[in-house]
Design a protein that fits this description.
The complex is a heterodimer of chains A (256) and B (297).
Chain A lengths: L1 H22 L8 H40 L6 H39 L2 H7 L4 H38 L5 H11 L2 H27 L4 H35 L5
Helix pairs in contact in A: 1-5, 1-7, 2-3, 2-5, 3-5, 3-6, 3-7, 3-8, 5-6, 5-7, 7-8
Chain B lengths: L3 H10 L3 H9 L2 H4 L3 E10 L2 E11 L4 E6 L5 H8 L7 E6 L2 E2 L5 H8 L2 E4 L11 H11 L4 H14 L15 H13 L5 E5 L7 H17 L3 E5 L3 H9 E5 L5 E5 L9 E7 L2 E6 L1 H5 L4 H8 L2
Parallel strand pairs in B: 3-8, 3-11, 6-7, 7-8
Antiparallel strand pairs in B: 1-2, 1-4, 4-5, 9-10, 11-12
Classes of the chains: A mainly alpha (256), B alpha/beta (297).
The structure holds adenosine-5'-triphosphate and magnesium ion.
Chain lengths: 256, 297
């Protein structure tokens, strides 16, 4: 019974945190500077690793599927197969996982250290609401930057796929591009953009919650950092399944 | 709810001349304590930390809190700020019952309180300037007004040179002084000092006590001053600040003609107040526990 109780408690706390940070958006003072700073840190800062991830994922997809497609003599569809899996699944999920590793850990470590060194208390004592000043800007920045990072990862994934197809399997570039354009539907694009919104929310809320609920000094900071990354990643993957199912239903997506 | 100026307004609008003085003495904002605890209880898990604490700090009064390490002194201060909530009892700030205030309501109350944290608790990603200016910047004060004010506060604690440093470049004592400057900016009407002189050299400790005396006597600030140092206790309870003919602040010792009544000592033992009164009363007490506490044996 105990783990179930704990799980429900944490879920309640995280939901409350999300609720409070959105309610606080309507109140003053707001911190636009802080939001921009976080966007820079999260968006621009994560760009290199996200691009690399996207590029090589696209590359390896082509590398692995091309022989199979060739066996059935439909190698001209390589672009389509990469595009669909990248844009629907791998782009959003891998980007979210990379960002949760890089940003989720940073957020919970930063907030956790502030808790154990009483800086959060000091902030409250001087009349600042930490949710408004620290949590809301981070969640907002993640919600807005993750879709953009996902687009970047998707584009680089397609480039990676194209490069592998032409360099290793000697496919002509225009064949690949034509197949990509045939393969992508509007609902793929929409679905692929909706997911990262939710993933950004999950990463932001989980890591802020873990950071702010840190207890037990320096060891505690380490623990909440690990927990933040693990829990955010697992939730991203679990949520992805249900989100895909829901999007299939809502956007009426066909099979690949 | 009446604001302070409204209440004063009614006092001054009084038509009968004789009535005026009487009312001034009973002026609500003066009689109403700045801080009041009524039978406050608090436990962490199963350990009782505060077991029925009642006291009040009047306007312009300094309350010195003594007590064993781990006795709950910092806890009292955190309760005043609403960083913790009591299990039972009532806490009033300026007559306002804050016991069940939520975070948003507390923000308004905290605007009038300055706090010196025992561990410093400086914002370590902000420079000394930004730390001290924090409260003014949060209030949206223009930069041109913030800068001279920050310099003035840092000059108070003798740290003007460190204005561009980061907290991790400072020594422990310097950090504590930055904490004091940060607490006093924006002229809070209530200041909470949690062991502000621990680990400082005697002259600096003396400066900080003088600062507290000035706030008390010249600016009518109410404060709680937690300390273990008997020197601090002696300074705070036997000296007062006045302004001499040339407009300079001077410190004088209380004597025959004047006995300080705006400083009281309170001692916490086992979650209860086991002494409360002036320093003279403290010195002449027969309680062996208090005597070992003051004289160390
Ligand atoms: N968050 C907490 N959880 C559990 N126990 C706590 C917590 N905060 C304080 N305590 C306990 O409450 C007691 C009082 O702590 P407090 O910090 O008020 O002591 P203090 O009088 O300020 O001591 P010192 O003079 O050493 O600063 C201590 O025994 C401490 O262990
Ligand atoms: Mg303490």
């Amino acid at each position: 019974m105990y783990p179930v109780y704990r799980f429900l408690f944490e879920l309640q706390e995280i939901s409350l945190l999300i609720w409070r940070s959105f309610v606080n958006l309507r109140r003053r003072p707001r911190y636009p500077g802080e939001v921009l700073r976080q966007m820079d840190l999260i968006g621009v800062g994560s760009l290199p690793i996200v691009l690399l991830t996207g590029f090589f994922t696209g590359g390896v997809l082509v590398l692995q599927t091309f022989p199979t497609l060739e066996y059935y003599s439909i190698q001209s569809e390589a672009g389509r197969s990469v595009a669909t899996s990248l844009i629907r699944e791998l782009g959003p999920v891998l980007t979210a996982l990379m960002v949760s590793g890089r940003i989720g850990s940073a957020i919970s470590a930063e907030l956790g250290s502030m808790v154990v060194s009483q800086q959060i208390d000091a902030m409250r004592a001087f009349g600042t609401n930490p949710i408004r000043k620290l949590v809301a800007p981070r969640i907002i920045a993640l919600i807005f930057m993750l879709p953009l990072l996902t687009i970047a990862a998707d584009i680089f994934g397609l480039i990676g796929g194209g490069v592998v197809a032409s360099l290793i399997y000697n496919q002509e570039t225009h064949v690949f591009i034509a197949s990509v354009r045939n393969g992508i539907s509007t609902s793929d694009l929409v679905g692929g953009m909706i997911k990262p919104f939710f993933f950004g929310l999950i990463i932001g809320a989980v890591s802020c919650h873990k950071g702010l609920s840190t207890t037990g000094g320096t060891v505690g900071v380490g623990r909440s950092t690990t927990n933040a990354v693990v829990i955010a990643s697992i939730w991203v993957i679990i949520f992805d399944f249900f989100l895909s199912k829901a999007l299939h239903f809502v956007l009426d997506m066909g099979p690949i | 709810m009446l604001s302070e100026s409204d209440e004063q307004g009614t006092v001054f609008d009084e038509e009968e001349p004789g009535k005026y003085l009487e009312d001034a003495v009973d002026e609500p904002s003066r009689v109403r304590p700045a801080i009041e605890f009524r039978d406050v209880h608090l436990s962490f898990d199963d350990v009782t930390i505060l077991n029925g604490i009642s006291f009040s700090v009047r306007k312009g009064e300094t309350k010195i809190i003594l007590g064993r390490s781990g006795g709950g002194k910092s806890t009292i201060i955190r309760l005043v700020l609403g960083l913790l909530k009591p299990d039972s009892g009532t806490i009033l700030i300026d007559g306002e019952d804050i016991t069940y205030y939520n975070e948003e309501q507390m923000m308004g109350v905290r605007q009038k309180i300055g706090m010196v944290f025992q561990e410093g608790a400086l914002f370590d990603s902000l420079s000394v300037f930004e730390n001290v200016a924090y409260r003014l910047i949060e209030r949206g004060v223009a930069y041109e007004e913030v800068e001279p004010e920050v310099r003035r506060m840092l000059r108070f604690v003798d740290l003007e040179d460190a204005i561009d440093k980061m907290p991790d470049e400072l020594s422990g004592g310097m950090r504590r002084r930055v904490g004091i400057a940060r607490a006093l900016i924006g002229d809070p009407q209530i200041v909470l000092f949690d062991e502000p002189t621990a680990g400082l050299d005697p002259p600096t400790a003396r400066t900080i006590c003088e600062l507290a005396i000035k706030l008390r006597d010249l600016q009518d600030v109410s404060s709680i001053f937690v300390t273990h140092e008997m020197n601090n206790l002696r300074y705070l309870s036997s000296e007062y600040a006045t302004v001499d003919d040339e407009g300079k602040v001077i410190f004088e010792k209380e004597g025959e003609k004047l006995c300080l009544i705006n400083t009281e000592v309170m001692m916490i033992r086992d979650g209860q107040i086991n002494f409360s009164g002036t320093d003279e009363k403290l010195e002449h007490t027969d309680d062996p526990y208090i005597r070992t506490f003051i004289y160390g044996k």
